[in-house]
Specification:
heterodimer, A: mainly alpha, MetI-like fold, 14 helices, B: alpha+beta, 2 domains, 9 strands, about 35% strand, elongated
Chain lengths: ~270, ~130
Amino acid sequence: MRARGMWPRHAALLVVCAIMLVPFYWVVKTSLTGENIYAYPPRLLPQAPHLFNYVDVWYLIPFPRYLLNSVIVSLLAVGGNIVLNALAAYALTRAFPGRRWVVLLLLSCMLIPFQATIIPAYLITARLGLLNSWLGLALPMLSTIVCIFVFKAAFEAVPRSLIDAARMDGLGDLRILARVLLPLCKPAIATNVILSFIWSWNNFMWPLIVTRDPLMQTLPLGLARFLSYVEDTTGALYAFVVMVLVPGLAVFLMAQKEFMRGLTAGATKG
Amino acid sequence: MYQRTRPVRRLQNRFVLVPLVLAVLVAAWNLYVALHAHGVVAGRVVEADGRPAAGATVILYERDFITQNERGRTTTGPDGGFRFNGNASHLVQLQARQGALRSARVTLRLWFRAQDARLAQPLRLGPG
């Protein structure tokens, strides 16, 4: 009875889902056919679909190299985020003089757009000799403030008595973090992985600035380059978009349960 | 017993299994590519009435970013058959010529570079 009464709500949700998925469907459909996206009347179903546009993308530009660059940079960013954010968040859960000010400083830094810090970030990267390198590409993404607070909320949800017990058993801070807190905060780790991966994967501005060699470019830069090189390749262009999207989607789908839990951790008490 | 099985169980999750399956698929695909990438492109040329066209010239064009560049020529045998070796592209066009006659350019899309391929339909010579 109750389920029958829910159908208007489910129908409305289905319609909203369909509307939100239409752009993705159109991208995939165009990648399979190469149809003009402005054709009128638009065709809902693909005509004579094929996968050769994906083959064109793979070979017409150095796609494997762009993919390798993006994967390495994203892995560096994910690793850096997990290690550095966990350390920073653990420090912020401890009592020390000025902790409140540090939290306030971090929160206020979130208001500064990345574009405003690009010049100092570039100069620092240049001084370190990391321009045009994988580490240089990942450097500004190695730690993000939002993810520090995700870890902090998760750590604060762990009972204090558990940490005190570990300390009485002789564990130091690093081992408490690694052996007690992190295993209990898998949703926060998943959230860090997904957010840092997607931000790094989609990053356009920073790689555009620090790369000099075309072979050090990442996929978003490759997409822009592809667009400027190749004419009349709507299908291949959309195939490229799908190939850039798929790894991020795969990571999200694999960790979505933990991701949702991690984002809502600390949202409720008790 | 529990201690011995635990490391294996730890690996049985989607974060390990999905990349593992992908790695196996990629390895299998690369093996298939390695076994079928000799760059052979073969086919037949026929006259307008369907008879084999012996001694016709077949030209292979390879696609650059926006242009088709000639990469090779060969001559058909008595049965109208032709064969190119060493094609390195994944997207080629073929055209046959004989005197004033010529065929339409046929595009051959391949799944990978240097894939061995045979034209499904023969190149048909006509007035051009």
